[in-house]
Design a protein that fits this description.
The complex is a heterodimer of chains A (255) and B (255). Chain A has 9 helices and 10 strands. Chain A is α/β, with parallel strands linked by helices and 255 residues long. Classes of the chains: A alpha/beta (255), B mainly alpha (255). Chains A and B meet through α2 of A and α1 and α4 of B.
Chain lengths: 255, 255
């Protein structure tokens, strides 16, 4: 579904992404994990075309993402900090995006809209919303168009426990529909039950991309948090790991 | 394209700045026509307002609008829309609202009190200047990194076109006063849309008779069809080139 080849990006002195190669396929829930400033958001924004990479290519459904913006119609994106036009009302925001994506009401996924009870704040301007409510709007928008690919940047940050559970439940549901879901989060316990693959980034470099079973097996830790901590402490990184990265690099197979 | 511009327009109308601008122009034009007994004298006073105020408000309004709608642009970028389309919609919305303000504020009084060649020339120049300076302001704001720089750059550009350029032109004319300069000044005036507009309107008025040989030469040129085409063509270049440059920069920008 998404193939990334030799992706590099530099912001002045900071090497945000350094020769990233990866392959994400349908049915995967990939957790992007790494310390602050490791390039997770930059990677996501590169996939969305908001950040222009210095070199390397990204393919979405086998098509290079240069130029034609239509591929973004298959992506639902929930940003880390949802920023919306201040004067626009919540209802208008949904109507406007529906208008832009040209979808009929039947195709829409209003699940989160209902569960977060957003209809009750449809006539409130975006500037009056609290951070958490904004986050709910972002989440509902990401799922609204029933996209094949979901990109969630820190989805549960700022949500209350109940909403956070609703969102996680929704992600689980979408996972069963064989969608590709990319999540970044620092709350590893949230990811534990969702994730199928882990991509670990550090200082713009991809340290590994592997499935959760392998990771658990190799670190000998059941919990994702512990497994990652084990890796961060510099446990045996190279040992037995079936490196999907290298596999992608050598065969270069399309998705 | 129009769909997006509609939202931009809606946002602009809500802020009410544009309504204040319309009212300001309307009251000024109306009172000038009431105060002056001779309508062509009123047009002359109005000319100075148009040449100074229209570019200034156009630049400042556009720059501030661009930074205020940054969130909107960001949101649109995650949708299946091309960057060219997003920026052109923004331009369309801003240009359309400024143009309507100008046509209502200045256009209606001029058509009522001074519906002749000079009046039409004034309207043409004002409309062209609105588009030119919206275009230049877009270039300045796309290029500048933050709001303060953007507005600063817009103000400096306005100073240059409204004041500094004339000073430089005078300097050149004095330095080379021994040589025939008519043709050269004609070319130099193309480098500043405000000057071009001023010459274009002045030569439609009776006072051009006071300008001696040079005035006669210019009247000959600007009075002819070639002159109108020349002015229109140069103005069009001033609209298209900065906007085209802004689009190019916007394409490569990280957001």
């Amino acid at each position: 579904m998404i193939r990334i080849e030799n992706l590099s990006k530099r912001f002045k002195k900071l090497q945000a992404l350094d020769d990233i190669n990866a392959l994400f396929s349908t049915g995967q829930v990939v957790s992007l994990i790494g310390p602050n400033g490791s390039g997770k958001t930059t990677l996501i924004k590169s996939i969305l075309g908001m950040v222009k990479a210095d070199s390397g290519t990204i393919y979405v459904n086998g098509k290079k993402i240069n130029g034609d913006p239509s591929y973004r119609g298959q992506i639902g994106y929930m940003p880390q900090i949802g920023r919306y036009p201040d004067n626009m009302k919540v209802g208008q925001l949904f109507r406007m995006l529906k208008n832009i994506r040209k979808m009929t009401d039947a195709e829409l996924d209003t699940d989160l809209l209902v569960k977060f009870n957003l209809a009750s704040i449809f006539d409130k301007p975006m500037r009056t919303l609290s951070g958490g409510t904004r986050q709910k709007v972002s989440a509902a928008l990401a799922f609204y168009f029933n996209p094949d690919i979901l990109i969630l940047d820190e989805p549960t940050a700022g949500l209350d426990p109940l909403s956070s559970e609703i969102l996680k439940e929704k992600i689980m549901q979408e996972k069963r529909k064989d969608k590709l879901i990319l999540i970044t989060s620092h709350i590893l316990s949230d990811l534990d039950e969702l994730t199928t693959h882990v991509m670990y980034l550090q200082e713009g470099k991809m340290i590994f991309l592997k499935d959760i079973e392998t990771l658990r097996h190799e670190t000998g830790q059941e919990k994702l948090g512990k497994a990652i901590a084990y890796v961060m402490k510099g446990g045996k990184k190279e040992a037995l790991w079936i490196d999907e990265v290298l596999a992608v690099k050598t065969t270069g197979q399309p998705d | 394209m129009l769909k997006l511009s509609r939202y931009v327009l809606y946002d602009i109308l809500r802020s009410k700045v544009i309504i204040a601008y319309t009212l300001f122009l309307f009251i000024v034009s109306l009172s000038l026509f009431q105060l002056e007994e001779n309508d062509s004298k009123a047009i002359l006073s109005l000319l100075n307002i148009v040449l100074i105020v229209v570019p200034l408000i156009g630049m400042i309004f556009t720059t501030i609008h661009y930074y205020n709608s940054y969130e909107f642009i960001e949101l649109m970028l995650s949708q299946p829309l091309s960057r060219t389309r997003i920026l052109l919609s923004e331009y369309g919305g801003v240009a359309l609202s400024l143009l309507s303000a100008f046509f209502i504020g200045v256009g209606i009084p001029v058509l009522v009190f001074a519906f002749d060649e000079t009046g039409l020339a004034l309207l043409f120049t004002g409309a062209a200047l609105t588009l030119v300076f919206t275009s230049i302001a877009f270039l300045a704001s796309v290029k500048a990194r933050d709001k303060a720089r953007g507005i600063g750059a817009a103000l400096l550009l306005w100073f240059y076109f409204a004041l500094i350029f004339d000073g430089l032109l005078l300097l050149i004319l004095f330095a080379f006063s021994d040589y025939p300069m008519e043709k050269l000044t004609l070319v130099l005036s193309a480098l500043n849309p405000i000057d071009l507009g001023r010459i274009f309107i002045m030569l439609k008025m009776d006072i051009s008779a006071l300008m001696g040989y040079t005035g006669a030469l210019y009247k000959d040129f600007f009075g002819s069809a070639t002159g109108i085409l020349y002015t229109g063509g140069i103005m069009l270049l001033w609209i298209i080139l900065p906007l085209w440059r802004a689009l190019k920069i916007f394409q490569r920008k990280d957001l």
